[in-house]
Every structure is written in C-alpha cells, then in structure tokens.
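Write out the bound-state structure for calcium ion.
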Amino acid sequence: MKITKALAGFLAAAFLLMTALTSGAAETEAPVDDDIDIQKIEFNNTGFIRGMDVSSVISLENAGVTFKNENGVEEDIFKLLADNGINYIRVRVWNDPYDGSGNGYGGGNSDIEKAKQIGRRAAEHGMKLLVDFHYSDFWADPAKQKAPKAWENMTLAQKQSALYDYTFNSLSELKSAGADIGMVQIGNETTSGIAGVYDYSDIHKMFSAGSKAVRDFDSGVKVAIHFTGPENTAVMKWYADYLSQNKVDYDVFASSYYPYWHGSLENLTAVFDYVAETYGKFTMVAETSYAFTLDDTDGHDNTVSHWSNNTGKDLLWDFSVQGQADEVRAVMNAVNNVSSSKGLGVFYWEGAWISVGDITGMSGAELTRRCNANRELWERYGCGWASSYAGEYDGDAARYYGGSAVDNQAFFDAEGRALPSLRVFKYVVTGSSGADNIKGDADGDGIVTVKDVTEIQRFIAELTDFTDEQKNAADVDGNGVVDISDATLLQRYLAEFITEL
Ligand code: CA
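---
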C-alpha cells in the first residue's frame, strides 16, 4: 500500500473518529504470521500422499486436550486435518502396551482400540489409513525391536505365524470399525531387526509373513517396508537389494527423514531413485517433522530444542511457522522428484502431539504445580512419550518417562489452535494465496467492489467469520487488525479519493 504521510495522518484521525462512533464494534486480530508463502508442486502422482501421523491424539483428547481452527473455534481434529489438505492418516499399533495391572505404557497407549477410533474418524473425513505395525508392546526404532511380551519365548516359525495372524486379524478389526486401509507397514524402522528377530537370514521371513497377511486380507492394500538412516546411502541400497534377493513381496520402500539426522534431501532423492530404477518400487517418507519454535510448552524436553538438534548443514529452514511449512514442502518436493514417478508421498510424524498444560511464561511454584499436573495426566492417560509403567518393558522409559518431546513440532500451538503452517498440505497443491491476496478483496471473488466493504462491515459486526486469507485481504491498511478503518479506506478507494491501496 502506498499513501502519502499527510493522507495517512488525515485518515488516522478519521479512523479514530469512526471507531469512536461505532461503539460495540468488534476489533478482531488477524493472526500475526498467517501469511505463509508456499510454492505449488507439480505432482507426478495425482494421489500424492500428504499424510500425518496422529497416533497419540486419542490419549490427548482423553486428557482434556481440544483442537481449534485458526480462529480459535473448537473442531474435530480430523476435520481440521482434512480441511487443510491432509489425505492420509498414519497410526502405530502396539500389541499390548499395558502392564499386568492394566496401566498404559504411554506414547498414546497405542493399541488396536485406539487405532480403530483413529481409522474410523479419518475415514469419516475422507482420509485413508496407513497402519504402522511395530510388532512390539512399545516403541520400535533402529535401537529397539523388542518382541511383544506374548511372543518372547516363541521360535522363529511361531513368530512368523503369530505375526501373520496378528496382522490379518488387526486389519479385519480395523476394517470392521470403518477404517479405509490403504497401506500397511510391516514393522517400524526395522533397520536392525523386527519383533526380537535380529538375524538377517531370518528378518526377511518376518517381512514375508506380514506381507502375505496383507495380500490375503486385501490385494488392493499396499505393503510398505520401513527403514531409516537414509544418510547411509550404501546401507539403504543394501536393504533394497536384501529385500529383492530374499523375494520379499512389497510395494513401497519407506524411510524416515529427520533433517537433523538424515543428511541432505538430494541424497534422499538419490537413494529413492536407486530403489525406483533398480526394483520399480514406490518410495515414501514415512516420517518427517520440523520445529516451529525451540521453546518447550509442557515441561518435558523436546527432541529439537535450544540445546539439541538445532544446528547442522541440512537444517535449511528457520525454526518458525513459515520454516516448518517450508520443510514439509521441501521434503514433498524431494520425494516428488524421484524418477519414474515413483515418489508416493510424505507423512509428517505426530503433528498434533501438543502440551496437556501450557507452561509458557510460568516460573517458581506456579511452574512446579503445572508440571506436576501434567505428569499426572501423562501417567493416567498415557499421553506422554512414556509412562513410568513402561519401565518394566523399556529401560529408557524407566529412566526418562514423561511428556511430549515434539510439542514444538506440531501444527497446533499449546492451546490446540491450528498454526498457519498446517495449510502447507493444501498449498503444495494450489500454491499459497496468502502471499498473493488482492488487497481489499475480502469476499475473495477476485475483484474489489462495494461488496467487500459490506463483508468487512459484517465481519466487524460479528455477522460473519473470515478465513485467514480473507483477513489478510480485508486488512487493507496492513496493521494486522481488521477494523472499521479498513472499511473506510476501502470506501475512499472505491470513491477514488485515493488511487492505491
Ligand atoms: Ca515438550
């Protein structure tokens, strides 16, 4: 907007008068950083997966957490995700994340019952489900692939059979509950083993047992195998060769990609290119995430913080809301660049694992009280990464149990309100309109008319609600607030008292 200083002074005085005259008019704050700028991606696959893992969300809701849209209005989180362009939900499944007395291990107490709720709600909002079987009672990752308690003393053959049955039966239950299953992971980050099987002459047999269960369940469902450590290019290629040599029947070669650990995106694309070109498989990022702030909001240290995982040559983006959106776009772009259109999609990991009680700005006794209250919720509802009850199964949990380590990587603030970065999942398809709003075009019809003045007046009188794009467009004087001054300025523009907004 270009207006002269003198005119600005005149207008400012007029606005003050106008504002004083319109008593009772609402003054609504436009979000400060809602102007995220995302460049469209030309996707090679029309169904490119723009997915999110929200495995802990049921436990959070049980603990009283609610989710809101950008205007602070409470909504079903699955509706919020779908409305913002997410088309696929990922859910982890643990066999039996409870102790002998029924106390949950935490990490969302992510059993099949939680997965059924998540799968049903995702389907109700048009989203498919990726079922991420860990074949463990708690976290399975490169360092841990512990067998479920019930499988501990089984032979390899018995484990293969148990894995087949568990997979087939769980998928049947999920389908009956209403889930729209599109893909199944046979294990999670199975880089060193699976379900307590660590010998490479045996691991592939477990993959094959799981794959057969999925094929028998529904031949239309994709089978994914998930490794991590893509920065070790030779190792990743070795896994792809290993799967082929052992005739594992699968569709999707998946990797995690956390930019503070996993090398460059160019390298990720190169690894996936190898798999696509050599074996004709789809490739996918099964997990990624990025911090929008380095601050913690729940009293449990975060994976990425002021003193941890916050530097490195592959951290190309700011720790900001825009930076978080930029990372998502960049990872999607890297997967989309995989040769022969074999880049299938990207899942963001736990984009809603927020605080159960915001500690921001607290200190002393108040902080202690809030942290204690949060601990109680984590223990009771399993909504932290681990409860004390997991200590019997997981040595790290025994020492470090607590809350969310990724509340600063969610797409929601500590009060559950959606961040503007959530919109990246639709903006990668359309391009961001946030940066290219036509000033004054409050109703979004592409032209500035008296109708826009009316819309702004209706908004101020609380007769209608605006999206953030509309707020941007309506904030004609650009001061971050939509108020009567914007309507007045727009009227003056339309009356040709001023020639530019
Ligand atoms: Ca935290």
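---
The first helix runs from residue 5 to 21.
The beta strands are 28-29, 49-53, 88-93, 128-133, 181-186, 222-227, 252-256, 282-288, 343-348, 481-482.
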